[in-house]
Description:
The protein is α+β, with helices and mostly antiparallel strands.
Amino acid sequence: xxxxIDDTSINSVCPSCKNSIKIKxxxxxxxxxxxxxxxxxxxxxxxxxxxxxxxAKKSFDELDKTLKDFxxxxxxxF
Length: 78
Ligand SMILES: [Zn+2]
C-alpha cells in the first residue's frame, strides 16, 4: 500500500528550460536534476498536496501497523 503512494507521480516544470518533469511523491523536497538541462530543480508543488500526501502516508503506515498487530494476535489465537 505504501508503494502506491510513493510511486504516484506529479507533474512539475523545470524553471530553467520549462521542460515538464515527472516527480514521484517520495522525491518531493529532495534535490532533483532536470533530465534536459541538468540544472537543479526544486520541485514546485502545492503545499496542500504535500501535506495531503504526507498525511496519506502516515495513515498507510498506521494501517500497516494495525495489520501487523492483527496478524501477530491472530498467530496467538490459532
Ligand atoms: Zn531544465
